[in-house]
Amino acid sequence: MEHRIVLTGGGTGGHIYPALSVHDELLRQNPDVDMLYIGAKDHMEEKLCTARGIKFYGLDVSGLPRKASLSLIVWVAQMSRSMYECRKIFKDFAPTAVLGTGGYASAPALFAAKQLNIPFAVHEPDAYPGLVNKLFSRWANVISLGMEGAKDRLPEVQGRVMINGNPVGANFVNPVNRAEACARLNVRPDLKTVIVTGGSQGARALNETLIAALPQLLDQGNMQIIHQCGEKNLDEVKSRVNSEYLSSGFYIPRAYFEDLALAYVASDLAVCRAGAMTLAELSTLGKPAVFIPYPHAAQNHQFHNAKYFESKNAARVIRQDELSPEKFVSIIKELVLDKGDKLQEMQQAMAKMGKPEAAKSLALQLLDLSELTR
Q1: Comparing C-alpha atoms, which of 371, 368, 363, 373 is closest to residue 123?
Q2: What's the predicted TM-score (pTM) here?
Q3: For residue 234, what pLDDT is reported?
Q4: Has residue 74 got a pLDDT over 90?
């Protein structure tokens, strides 16, 4: 009997990309594994699975409404129907194991696995566990954690927790060297380099702060700034920045990087949000950071993520409501232009938190689970 594994998770990239990395690693370990991804219909996970040729089944589900209203009745009906669909899918697909990586879209499949006594694992990417993983970790055969800090926020478990780290792509596990990254991006390798990014879509708070801070950051000609500002923001950002900075090459704005690993490798410091995948990528590369957590993330998990890394001396944290151009400049200059070992110590601390084998570890654990029903 072959391995037949269901992957489920959705809502944000932090829930989806770990599942996709495990999918790729499972195929490396065993090319005959049959896999099905279950997620929310017409959402990010469907688009990414379709692009990669991964079998996908879409559920008509949405997040739990935060207030009692008619939408709560609709949500209950959606979840009930989706749970029924997953039970039916499982009877046809006959999975030997299930992996849930979090988000509301994973709840119906995990419920079906529990009801049908199919071994399952949950992977929690954040330091502050989400509602679905917190619930289903009570019954999961394996509880995989992206960050050790989540362990104390889960129900009491015995012997089922694995501190795997968050699975990332091969471009982060086996990156190019800095010289090659600088050459590909056409940036100077002899300058201290900072990348500022609010994610692929950009972040207005970070963009606004950087624009105001540029004159002070670039006043001595000993630093260059790579700025991923988001496609919808690029023209506006360029129009508001002094043309001398654009022509000098010390400020390099980009809408989006197809391979963000290149920009990280070329940089000495990252200034960014604190989503689970960002932290996993930076720690795999050993790249220190200044985190400005997105303040509206569920359960404020980005703040908890960032503070955990700060507690290990791998990062500094600025709350968005305390962000100003002056503080932004002060911290960046303190770290990047410091004559001592501060940045190097942060690099070493960040590297210690990296788990480059995360995808492999979780894939092997999932195959072990699958053996229980073969």
Answers
A1: 363
A2: 0.83
A3: 87
A4: no
Contact 7, 34 (CB under 8 A): no
CATH of domain 4-168+356-371: 3.40.50.2000
Closest of 149, 138, 139 to residue 119, by C-alpha: 139
Element (H, E) at 33: none
Torsion over CA of 26, 27, 29 and 35, rounded to 10 degrees?
50
Residue appearing with tokens 């015995």: 158
Side chain identity at residue 46, one-letter code: E
**Cα angle 61, 296, 47; round to 5:** 40
Mean pLDDT of 322-338: 93
Whether 167 contacts 22, CB under 8 Å: yes
**pLDDT band, residue 169 (cuts 50/70/90):** confident
Closest CA to 190 of 270, 249, 241: 249
Indicate the class that CATH gives domain 171-353: alpha beta
pLDDT in tens, 222-255: 899 999 988 888 888 888 888 888 888 899 999 8
- Give backbone dihedrals phi and psi of 291, rounded to 5 degrees, phi first: -95, 135
Domain locations along the chain: 4-168+356-371, 171-353
Helix intervals (H) in 94-136: 107-115, 131-136
